[in-house]
Description:
This protein has 113 residues and is mainly alpha-helical. Helix content is 96%, strand content 0%. Helix 1 runs antiparallel to helix 2.
Amino acid sequence: MNRDTAEGKFDQFKGKVKQSVGEAVGNDRLANSGAVDQVKGNAKEAWGNAKDAVQSVADDVGTRAAAKHAEAREHMASTAHDVREKMTTTATDAKNAVSAKADEIKHEHKRTA
C-alpha cells in the first residue's frame, strides 16, 4: 500500500466521522465537509491503487526483460563459441591439408631426385 492509498483510506474514515457528527448535531456544513472528504479519499485511494498496478506491471516487465536479455546474452555467447570453434577447426584442417601436400611434394621430389 502506497502513501496515496493510505491517505485515501484515512480521508474516507475522517469524512464518515465528520458526516455522522454533522448529521447528529444538525450541522449541514460539517456533514457536507465529511462527504467531500469521503469523495476525496475515494479518489486518492483509487489513484494509489492505479499507481500500485502500474508499478507492479513495470516490475514484471523489467524482470521479464532482464530474463530475456540474459537468455539472449547466453545464446550469443554460445553462438560466438560455435563460430570460434568452426573458425579454428577450419584453420586446423587447412593447415593439415597444406602440410600433407607439402610433405607429399617433398617425398615426390626426393624420389625423383
